[in-house]
Amino acid sequence: MPRLHMHVTDAAESPLRVALHELRGKLEIPDHFPPTAQAEAESAARAPRIPAADGAVATEHTLEDATDLPLFTLDPPGTLDLDQAMFLSRRPAPPGSKAGGGYRVHYAIADVASFVTPGGALDAEAHHRVTTLYFPDERVPLHPYVLSEGAASLLPDRDRPAVLWQLDLDADGALTGTSVRRALVRSRAGLDYAGVQRVLDDRTAEEPLALLREIGQLREEREVARGAISLNVPEQEIVEHDGCYTLEYRAPLPSYAWNAQISLLTGIAAAELMLASGTGILRTLPTAPDGSVARLRLTARALGVDWPHHTSYAALIRTLDPRRATHAAFLQECTALLRGAGYTVFDGTAPAVSEALHAAVAAPYAHATAPLRRLVDRYTSELCLAASAGAAPPDWVRAALPALPREMELGTQRANQVERACVDLVEAALLRDRVGEIFEALVVDIQEQDPTHGTVHLYDPAVIGTVETAPEGPALPLGHRIPVRLTEAEPGHHPVRFTPA
To answer: For the whole model, what pTM was predicted?
Structure first.
């Protein structure tokens, strides 16, 4: 699914940018590609080697031409590494049918395998990096910019090789047919969430854009029926006011969620294709243990979140408003139930349903829609192309499968480490001159072994930090609003810490 990220546009020599640069050094984040990998990328950008169905190499001139599809992309403003483009349309109703005809989703995914040669230096570097890493001031890409923001990106008004999905839905939004093929595509427009939301809200959007709301809402209804979990967690955003920065929470727009539903739909379709073929790699998540849910119920009670006994966790979170402080705090705590995700590989025998399920999606699911930014998606594309054609997967794909889960696990851990470190650094940078001040905060968590240590959620600015009372002091009042004093905030050295005031 797409994600939102913090951004900062300070001058290069500002203390915050300097601290971010030092953080990349501390975390040993690469600042350039090896010369051989960069050279391979530049050569591929000039002449991509498009895999053909018979194992040979095709060219853009022999690729199926689907440039007549008026595709559009939907991303945050300024995004250049464009993995996906879509075209949405209605299907006519079958003769004699009283129901509507349903919908057709054309979803083009960047064809990274046309630019990365298996076993080459660029491929090796991608397996080392695993994911694009996002810092508030810059990205550290999975692939060189000449590809990720150039020749492989689905930029508007450029012909691009792509993996083109055709997903047919019935009038209720249920998936009824899937096909995948390679094709030459051409995006017509690069849209952003706020702009799309405006024209959808004022009802001036024409099809196919207007269908994003229609299809997205139908898929959300099916998500509810499955019992899936969709966390509307507010994002931390760096906001400039009169030359000064502060942190605020921003709830994702509905257009972001509807776009995510198209990506989820494709991930579910990819899982179905691979399971039917007997070879694949799934993104899996076990069901949260009862103890974790019970603890979350205690947190809800402490935060004053009404959770009726007969209401499921999945149903509850859809009723929450991330703009309310207590609800935002509870949504942050809900992410604990989504830990433990991994990847399941199979080749020859599909896994049992219990081993194939992603508990949050409430269905088998695969990462398939972000190959410019995530390693595994390139392999998913090739597996689904083969499955759709009734062919065996390429040997280089099969050979890489056993190692992919561990590679993705390590890459995801590094991305999470970067994200947490960036939040800590930015929070400390914004509060470093306010040590000693008192803030109003909500106690959102306490340690079971030591209830004098916990976590607080400030009402303003949008900061989450650790809090601890004096040794042998009283337990922190979980779910209560308390004044706290900022005791530490040193960017790059000490994250923000508080004590009850």
So the answer is: 0.89
